[in-house]
Amino acid sequence: MAGKKPAKVNAGNKVIQKDLPGKATMYMSGYKGGFHTCPTCNKKTGKGIVYELNNELYCSRGCLKHLIALA
Questions:
Q1: Rg over CA atoms, the chain
Q2: I need a surface site. Which of 16, 41, 45, 50 has the fewest CB within 10 A?
Q3: 23-50 pLDDT, tens per residue?
Q4: Is the overall model pTM greater than 0.70, yes or no?
């Protein structure tokens, strides 16, 4: 038995996604006790998603927005 087809998306209802600052990157430290320190808030991250902007890694998009607001 065939399943139901998904509904077609109305062209007028499409939502354009915002271009968010920074590129999401998965970070894992190379050794035990090795942490990445965010340059904005000094938070230490051993494993998780960090955001890259201009070859710098930040712990969250909030730290990026804070940095962009200062510039």
A1: 19
A2: 16
A3: 999 999 888 888 889 988 999 988 999 9
A4: no
